[in-house]
Write a structure and sequence with these properties.
Structural class: alpha+beta
Helix content: 25-40%
Number of strands: 13
Order of helices and strands: HEEEEHEHEHEEEHEHHHHEEHEH
Strand content: 25-35%
Length: 349
């Protein structure tokens, strides 16, 4: 149910944006647990080796910074498990005739089943490929011509397939020189002075543009970090697996509702700022609320730099009737009152 609601909120955000093409990044992240939560198991957990964990599958829209869908999985689940089914669900819920979708994923999702699923749905994909010998042997062949690009990068293209694949597909190959110390070591292998990277795609982008476009996938990792640390997704503490799944979906619903709020109420330059930045600018403030003569007045510091934005937000929502700026002396008095109240609360505990 919560996943359906999340789809509806995302579609509302997508409609407001009027985008005709979007990029959906699919990635997974480990959530460490310290107890014996249902469904948690030992798996890839780099920060807490040997600990039980969950593995969450995320899908984010890069252009909107928005959560599309996702779900909690057991900690020992392989990265790509459930990805093909999730892609079908995404397309069924948001695809329209005037919307083009590109799915972007790392090498953990390099699987022909996933690629075939995307192709059958009429969507685009850009996936980092694993460096199998079938690809490396062709890329290091002396007959292959690489084109020089930016930042020491060279690119070329291959139309080939892996051993068990049904058909040829477009692979973009990128190579960069290894560090000088590594190149100094003698080798008999052709092309061994380079590091090679492979990408499979059905887009029409130029080879180097494919590589540059893939590198933007790092944004999704930042969105996941923001969800984990600013929305507390990294703390799933309930015993029941399905209760933790419900909590996760509610957290991500809050995440998207916050994006809707920013889209409607803030300047476009504020939209992509992180939640913690928003809190520092607009929430963690020394202020005083006064109710008088049917008015609600918020008093802020005279030097508060975002008062115009604050006025627009509160006035539009009819929450605050007036915002005033008080002098430094009044603000210091207000801060001392807040500090005294916090101190009394600590002693009461």
């Amino acid at each position: 149910m919560f996943r359906d609601i999340n789809f509806k909120v995302f579609k509302k955000l997508l409609t407001k944006s009027k985008l005709t093409s979007i990029t959906i990044d699919i990635d997974s992240s480990v959530i460490n647990v310290e107890g014996h939560q249902e469904g948690a198991s030992k798996g890839y957990n780099p920060k807490k080796l040997g600990n039980r964990c969950y593995n969450i599958q995320f899908a984010f829209c890069d252009e909107l910074k928005a959560y599309v869908t996702g779900f909690v999985r057991s900690g020992n689940t392989y990265t790509a498990n459930g990805a093909a089914e999730m892609i079908k669900e995404i397309v069924a819920n948001i695809k329209s005739d005037d919307l083009e979708i590109l799915f972007r994923m790392d090498s953990g999702y390099f699987d022909e089943k996933i690629i075939e699923t995307i192709e059958s749905l009429g969507c685009k994909y850009l996936i980092k490929a694993k460096s199998y010998s079938t690809l490396t042997s062709q890329a290091t062949n002396s007959s292959i011509v690489f084109v020089k690009g930016e930042e020491g990068r060279e690119t070329t293209e291959l139309y080939t397939k892996l051993v068990k694949w049904e058909k040829d597909r477009r692979f973009v190959v990128s190579r960069v020189l290894k560090p000088e110390k590594e190149r100094a070591q003698l080798s008999l292998l052709e092309g061994s002075e380079y590091d090679y990277f492979f990408f499979v795609t059905n887009t029409t982008l130029l080879s180097e543009k494919v590589v540059i476009y893939y590198e933007k996938r790092g944004n999704a990792e930042n969105y996941i970090k923001e969800a984990k640390y600013d929305m507390a997704v990294g703390h799933l503490l309930l015993k029941s697996f399905w209760a933790n799944e419900a909590v996760f979906q509610m957290m991500m619903l809050s995440y998207n509702l916050f994006l809707l709020f920013k889209f409607d109420s803030l300047d476009s330059s504020e939209y992509r700022q992180q939640i913690k930045t928003f809190r520092l600018k607009y929430v963690f403030l020394a202020a005083k609320i006064i109710k008088t003569a049917r008015y609600v007045i918020m008093k802020l510091s005279e030097n508060y730099p975002y008062k115009e934005c604050m006025k627009n937000v509160w006035y539009n929502k009819n929450i605050i009737n007036k915002i005033e700026c008080c002098s430094v002396d009044n603000l210091q008095s207000l801060l001392s009152i807040i500090a005294a109240k916090m101190k009394s609360m600590i002693y009461q505990k």
